[in-house]
Sequence to fold (526 residues):
Amino acid sequence: MEGAMRFAPRSIRVRPIRASLLVVLPLVIVIPGPSGSSASSATGRLQPSTPPPPPPSSRQFSHSFVIRSGPRLSVAGRPFRFGGANIEWLGLAGYGPFDPNGPHFPSNYEVDDAMATAREMGVTVVRSQTMGDSVGCDQCLEPTLGHFNPAAFERVDYALKSARARGIKIISTIIGDDARGGGTGCVYLRWRSISVPGCSLINMPQFWTDQRVLEDVKEHIEKVLDHVNVYTHVAYKNDPTILGWDLLNGGGSPPSWTRRIVQYVRSLDRHHLILSGSVNAAIRGVDLCVGFVYPHWSQPLASVKPGIAACKAAGKPFAAYEYGWDRTNFPTLRGLRVFLRSLENAPEIVGDAFWALQAHNDGHGWMPIPADITDPVTAPRVETGQWWALYYTGIQTLVNTAADMRTRAQVLRRHNYAMRGVRLPAHAIPPAPIVTSAVYGPTSSTEQLGARIYWQGSAGAKAYSVQRATAAAGLWTTVCRRCVTDSDAGYVDDSSGAKGGWYRVIPYNLSGKPGRASNPIQASTG
Fold:
């Protein structure tokens, strides 16, 4: 969810309605047949389908490209449908959703935690706009016209490595959002001294027609596709971790521009899918139609029928690669479940991705709420992560309760596995936390003494226990039994044994099963 929807420093920008990009789905249960077959007949709806072949092994999946055959996708010879997540910040945080601190690189831990959380949610595809698009800032892939940033590429390299290790495919965007600059296209225009009042992704007419700008975009594409990952030593254009290239956030680029860019991408890369809006479904080389479903922005499922019809007529599949999940989009859990079942039961829909997943913060707790605001009255109506940012085990925001967020996350998890045709598994055991600080000293304004413990959160952990011992080897006494979460400011032990004590932290998943304890650490004197 980008472009004209993001919070700008001086104004609130609201997502426009793009009916042409979205599709309506008939609320009938259709049993999909084998890849490439039609499931539109009444007989097909009534008769049981042939059992699908087993999914590819993890290695097969990671090392195989996503292939389109007519209106179906496959990986390693098996049909492929996906439930996915948007994690916009994997290449560069604070670039799309407005961040008062400006763009900054996520850490390895934050990237890995996001990927591990996505995997726990049954996600097999992550859409991340900053893994192909960031221009015009010091930390961007292309900070200034024609100059490219190795440090920024290294962050994308690491995210691809992390995704590959967890069996996740990546959708990368070419022209996306720049919260401070109105949109990536507006940055390209400014580089060529072309002024567009109120420039945004939906108001940049010269971007589509200026030949110099077109060549600038081509240069960016070439540098991205030809870049060789420093960890895997594979060029992006040859990396099966990438599902495809999203030409424009939302997909609504003019056909003439789209046709030229598709031809250029195909001249460099014959492996990956090319994603665009339904208006471009008939263009040779466009593989996957994409669009948004946001009742919040007056884009309900019922508004997208023309788009899916155009894609179906062109023999192309469709993906709802951004949809809203929270109560401003679906006030009831039943409404959310009905919407997700409609996606599951529509064979034209090969995938989807909710907006948007956040991760644990490097150091302790959760990443801050993106595009944050403090007004509870406007929070449900304007562009802010107070309603759309998803923290897997749930946090309290101005719009969502922690319990409702946690419950909806499990609805999404069930849906993601249903899209894959896979039985819902038990929750993963969370990894061992990493204690980042243990200090004995004053713990409050009253100067009360105690040991305050901080740790990096474990993906999938709902709560933690804290144990104390007089030595690193134990014996361990539980001083906090599942009494603390990642929303708390660490844990304070103000008992008499805190001074000089050794501590370790144990994570528990949503089913109450424990993971491994952290390495022990002794509380230092602050």
